[in-house]
Structures are given as structure tokens and as C-alpha cells.
Amino acid sequence: MFTYIHHVGIACRDLDAKIDFYRETFGLILVSQEGSLQEGVREAMLQVGENGQLAASPLGREATPSYVQLLEPLGPDSPVGKFLTKRGEGIHHIGYAVADIAEAMSEIGAAGVQIIDKLPRHGSMGSSIAFLHPRDVGGVLTELVQVAAVAGHGVR
Ligand code: CO
Predict the structure, then answer these.
(1) pLDDT grade, residue 97 (50/70/90)?
(2) I need a labelling partner for 76 at 20 to 30 A (CA). Which of 62, 107, 144, 153 fits?
(3) SS3 87
(4) What domains are defined for the chain?
(5) What's the gap in Å between 6 CA and the centre of ligand 1?
(6) Which helix (H) or strand (E) holds 128?
(7) What is the pLDDT of residue 44?
(8) Which residue from 149, 62, 137, 136 is spatially nearest to 100, judged by alpha carbons?
């Protein structure tokens, strides 16, 4: 069902400082920065390595990058803000790639895991995402990610 680890979400207090840290210390590549007032968060996606890894996809085996997703809350009452208050900076969630998010949600839901999002919603870089309740995943907030179809790769 999961094809690879797409990203690890990390909660932080100072997004710009953490972006600099990950770029300068580990050589990660900043590929996207977005913000959502609705979700009360600023975020950045940093690619690990230049070429990605080989992973199974509906189109066969292809190189797929993985990312670190840095999350800074816009306020203390946002979901990430509450997480920071309670747990401090650190790993917030793990995002797994799936080929078909609707199918994955249906199968995982049928297995008794609560899916927080009733329908897939928009994630970073044109992806479709849904979160699973950490209570049903051993305390780990878990995200399903169906990546956007890459131009020139046909319909996914
Ligand atoms: Co995420």
C-alpha cells in the first residue's frame, strides 16, 4: 500500500532559521514554500538528495525524491501551535506515498483506522493528502500522500 516515505514533518518555531540549518548543515534543497491561513501554518519542503530514490509507482520504477517538511505555526491555537506547546520542537508526522489515495483511505478505513480527513485535501506541491488518527497508529500522526502527476509522465 505505501510505496515509500514521501516526507517527515517537523514542527519548529522559526521556519527561516530551520530552512537555513537544513540547507547549510545537511545540503537539503529548498523546493517549495507555502502557507495556509486556514490551517494556521507556514511550511517548507526540502528535498533530500538530488536524484531521489527508486520506488514503485503505477508507471513502473522511477526516481522519487523524499523530503523534510518544516512546519511553523502562525499562532498557538493552530494544530501545530498546540503540538509545539505540548511536545516542543521535533518530529510531527510521517507522510507515506500511495498510488491512489481514495483507494488507500478506503482500505485503511476498513481496517479500523480512523481517517481524520473525510475526503482527500490539497497538500504541498499539488499533492492530495489525508491524515490518519495517531491514536490508531501507535501515537504516530500519519499522512497519506498522492503526489501530483509529473508533466510529461502522462496521466496517473
Ligand atoms: Co506533511
Answers:
(1) very high
(2) 144
(3) helix
(4) 2-146 (3.10.180.10)
(5) 9
(6) strand 128-132
(7) 97
(8) 149
Distance (Å, whole) CA 136 – CA 112: 8
The answer to whether residue 62 scores a pLDDT higher than 60 is yes
> 73 CA distance to ligand 1 centroid (A)?
13
Confidence of residue 149 (pLDDT cuts 50, 70, 90): confident
Can you say whether residue 15 is alpha, beta or left, with left for phi > 0 and alpha for psi between -120 and 50 degrees?
A: alpha
Å from CA of 45 to ligand 1 middle: 9
User: Which residues, 6+ apart, have CB-to-CB distance to 15 below 8 Å?
Assistant: 42, 43, 44, 70, 71, 72
Instruction: Find the 59 Cα to ligand 1 centroid distance in Å.
Output: 24
Rounded Cα distance, 148 and 127, in Å: 5
Q: Please name the residue that has the C-alpha cell 482527500.
A: 120
Mean pLDDT of 69-96: 97
According to DSSP, the residues that pair with 98 across neighbouring strands are 2
Burial class (CB in 10 A: 0-12, 13-18, 19+), 139: exposed
- Distance between CA atoms of residues 52 and 50, nearest Å: 6
User: Rounded CA gap, 7 and 97, in Å?
Assistant: 9
CA of 155 to the centre of ligand 1 (A): 24
